[in-house]
Specification:
The protein is an alpha+beta fold. It is about 30% helix and about 25% strand. It is built from 10 helices and 19 strands. A hairpin with a 2-residue loop joins β10 and β11.
């Protein structure tokens, strides 16, 4: 019996999706709940599972097609999967081995063939390989069954190709400055969406940025003193972000306009604090949201951030995780940024930028001391937030972080 495979219901905020890559080809045996194809939306990559055991009879939409909820994309002929059929089949058939070839001689060829098989690469890995013009067969895979992970590709890039697979063919020789190649790679949907939203943010808001600096010496001392006992008690590391989230919530309570947004001619006040935490991934910038961050403990904040970080790295973060948010925090300091101007995340009216922590001489009680200092940058929509409020908002965060006891006593 033939079974239709359709695009699953997409969230309301997502109009369509791009069919990234089929993991099966017509004639392949397929199993129920096995991932058939990846769909990329503006925010996440979704998997389309096979509804039944059987054989993939027909593919109706090829790689790169734009599809909507309910679109027919494939036909599966339901039935018992042949016993000899592997659980996962390669996208390309393996080449027949010469009769005289020994198993030892064929092993490297099989491994190299698997490495070049794009069907065995996840969408994010495939995109990374294509953008850097890499040969997958030359990358050591550390995943299950020797599959290549994003970490493997990044290690290969960072090591200038030193982590070459043992079965790779003779490497090509690149002479510095000998080529002037150009490559044209289409933007991913996520990158195109990020570009569009960044331009819209600058065109549709009266964006200004106020700067300040914060002495994190006390926060670092507190974190150093309790990080081991915190990890033992809660099973998660005590980072800096939980301090900033709590400080931001306290400031938002004092200045609710920073937590508001504009809708037409109305100002929408939010009586809750959903804090977006910007996370950089191979696909681009994602902003998962900590719901009701004002009600969360330090441990709950750290666990939420750690969970989102894991999902982002694995590509399993969901659209619901990225939807909403009343204020955003972004940390360019992890990349070494000393100062930058964050761009608003529409329709939010404020975003706080963290930067590198650096030892700097500071006058404290008339004496020069070396302190742990960070520059803060808060971009805001001047249509509803005045400069005075923006400055006082950042000063409130500064005061809370320089005296962490304020965060516990909420004073």
């Amino acid at each position: 019996m033939s079974t239709e495979v359709k695009v699953p219901q997409l969230p309301e905020s997502v109009a369509d999706a791009t069919l990234v890559a089929w993991h099966k080809k017509p004639g392949d045996a397929v199993r129920r709940d096995e991932n058939l194809v990846d769909l990329e939306t503006d925010k996440v990559v979704l998997e389309v599972p096979c509804p039944v055991d059987g054989v993939l009879k027909e593919i109706r939409q090829e790689d790169g097609a734009t599809v909507e909820s309910g679109d027919l994309i494939a036909i599966v002929e339901a039935g018992e999967v042949p016993a000899e059929a592997p659980k996962e089949s390669a996208a390309e058939p393996a080449a027949s081995a010469p009769a005289e070839a020994s198993p030892a001689a064929e092993a490297p060829k099989a491994a190299a063939s698997a490495g070049k098989d794009s069907g065995k690469l996840s969408p994010s890995v495939r995109r990374l390989v294509e953008e850097h013009d890499l040969d997958p067969s030359r990358i050591k895979g550390s995943g299950r069954d020797g599959r290549i992970t994003k970490a493997d590709v990044m290690q290969h890039i960072d090591s200038d190709g030193d982590n070459v697979a043992e079965d790779a063919s003779t490497p090509s020789i690149a002479v510095a400055g000998a080529t002037r190649n150009e490559r044209r790679v289409p933007m991913t949907r996520l990158r195109a969406t990020i570009a569009k939203r960044m331009v819209e943010a600058q065109h549709n808001a009266a964006m200004l940025t106020t700067f300040n600096e914060v002495d994190l010496t006390e926060v670092i001392a507190l974190r150093t003193r309790y990080k081991e006992s915190f990890a033992d008690a809660h099973g998660v590391k005590l980072g800096f972000m939980s301090f900033f989230v709590r400080a931001a919530v306290e400031a938002l309570r004092k200045f609710p306009l920073v937590n508001a947004s504009i809708d037409g001619n109305d100002i929408v006040y939010h009586d809750y604090h959903d804090i977006g935490i910007a996370v950089s991934t191979e696909r681009g910038l994602l902003v998962p949201v900590l719901r009701d961050a004002g009600l969360m403990s330090f441990a709950e904040i750290e666990k939420g951030i750690a969970d989102y970080g894991r999902k982002a790295r694995e590509g399993t973060i969901g659209i619901d995780d990225l939807t909403g948010g009343t204020f955003t925090i972004t940390n360019g300091g992890i990349f070494g940024s000393m100062m930058s101007t964050p761009i608003l995340n529409p329709p939010q009216s404020g975003i706080l930028g963290m930067h590198s922590i650096m030892d700097r001489p500071v006058v404290v009680n008339g004496q020069v001391e070396i302190r742990k200092m960070m520059y803060l940058a808060m971009s805001y929509d001047h249509r509803i937030i005045d400069g005075k409020e923006a400055v006082q908002f950042v000063v409130t965060i500064k005061n809370a972080l320089e005296d962490p006891g304020r965060l516990l006593l909420q004073v």
